[in-house]
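Run log, item B.
One chain of 122 residues. Sequence copied directly from the ordering sheet:
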Amino acid sequence: MLNRKRKDVSRRIRSDKKRDIKISVTKEEKSFIIMASIEREESETDYCTQLLKSALARNTVFDEVEYQNLEDTVHVKVNAFLEGQIAYYAALWGWGSMRKVAHRIFMQSLRLERGGIIFEGI
């Protein structure tokens, strides 16, 4: 009786569950992210998540960037709504990787944060 296997009891999934997405960045981008997150007194993950959220809220067109699987990564925690938006762009661009889509969106927001200029409509 003690060694009996318990029946598989399905557990409910939290409604506010978040998905972790790793985005590869260069060493210079990583150091900028660390410095900016320290200035704002928040964690690196929270800072990067806010950048991704602001990019999705602000833009509908994202510049193409080359995806490189680099050694340095940052983490982004997205809820179900943001994951749905990223999945929409994955379907729109014909990509199967949520990581590549998140990278493209995140890079545009990071470029703006670093003081880059983006020309729209040209």
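Observations after the first pass:
- Residues 28 and 90 are 27 Å apart (CA to CA).
- The mean pLDDT is 87.
Flagged for discussion on Thursday.
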